[in-house]
Hints:
Layout: H1 24-49
Amino acid sequence: MKDKKHPPVDTEKPIEKPPFFSSWSGMYWLVIGNLAFLIILFYIITGIYS
């Protein structure tokens, strides 16, 4: 008996690649590195102007 509440899952869709990288982990590291850079930059600017 088929379950009418849940449609069949399409498992044939290819996994999309992220832009500029060959895997999503590279994109995650870019975002984390950017965040760390901004935190350090703002910390230095705060020290200069305080």
